[in-house]
Amino acid sequence: MKFEVKNNKVLVTGGAGFIGSNLIDILLENGNSVVCLDNFSTGNIQNLELAQSNANFTLIEGDIRDKDTCIQAVEGCDYVFHQAALGSVPRSIADPITSTAVNIMGFVNLLFAAKEAGVKRFIYAASSSTYGDHKALPKVEHVIGNALSPYAITKYVDELFAKNFSDIYGIETVGLRYFNVFGKRQDPNGGYAAVIPKFVSSLIKHQSPYINGDGTNSRDFTYIDNVIQANLLAAAVPSAIFKERMKEYQANTAGVPGINEGATISEVFNVAYGERTSLNELAAAIKEGLSNYDPAIAAISFQYGPNRPGDVAHSMASIDKGKTILGYVPQYSFQTGLKEACAWYWENLK
Ligand SMILES: NC(=O)c1ccc[n+]([C@@H]2O[C@H](COP(=O)([O-])OP(=O)(O)OC[C@H]3O[C@@H](n4cnc5c(N)ncnc54)[C@H](O)[C@@H]3O)[C@@H](O)[C@H]2O)c1
């Protein structure tokens, strides 16, 4: 059975950013009418070039910290894909107040607006940082540790609000805990850039990239197209089938809390590939990928420094829950995704 989001009206917040803009392009391709709400704090208008050529696209420049803006943006929408947030653990350590205001108050504004508007489902970007200091691998959704950063706290508080709104107001909510997403349009600039675009842009400039720690820390690097697939399925799987599959997952998985038959859907899912790659392996793979375009890159060495506060050592997801309930089957491995990403960065940064 194929479930799709087609010919609906949807709101994508943070749509000028990396993940949001990629999601918007596919939603438009599938015949949806898309409203994008973004304040361009970390997003870029260039990411919306394709979307802006589509008559079914509306851009609202505004801030999710403003409740009325959220109410206006969500009007008439069937689904909300809430991506807007201030990402980055170090950013949240440098300025916990702004990250908290955007990531928590902005989130509640949107959730409130969505339930007032009666949207069918509220899908939101959660985060693997919620696993915090819990050591077990792979990470399963119902076992989390203590948060290691203000950013991680904000993302976990969002999950609590989502569940609470589902219980109290009956709005369906689905949180997607993204694991180190990468791919086209991820911003390589600024002090808070993610590791893959940071390494890539340094290497293209023939600069030696900087690894935090000894390079043995590992992550479940997840290509953007897998993340888009998860978002679409999170919206499209009909409620009755979702609940049936929840029961199946619960019956086959030790420790999953029981579900109340009449409860409104409110679940979180890991969105990852389900493998882990160390930073040293990542560095070598990026060097190899870019050397196909510029052989001189093969000779560039990496620098090493201390671990960053707030970072977890290892991260890798179990994706069983998403597979069972959403039918999520990631199509891109780390290696195949990295090839695509290197090609895109080479075209756009060289
Ligand atoms: N990229 C990852 O690896 C990753 C991992 C886990 C979770 N996430 C989450 O996924 C979502 C999207 O991340 P991304 O990587 O695309 O980041 P991004 O910075 O590229 O996109 C975020 C977008 O939100 C917008 N935004 C920020 N504050 C806003 C505000 N107050 N009002 C309106 N718009 C605002 C920004 O301008 C930007 O366009 C975020 O919620 C992030 O926390 C990302």
Automatic annotation (TrEMBL):
Stated name of the protein: NAD-dependent epimerase/dehydratase
Gene3D superfamilies reported in the protein's UniProt record: NAD(P)-binding Rossmann-like Domain, UDP-galactose 4-epimerase, domain 1
Family: Belongs to the NAD(P)-dependent epimerase/dehydratase family.
Entry-linked Pfam families: Epimerase
Top-level taxon: Bacteria
Record domain NAD-dependent epimerase/dehydratase: where: 10-241
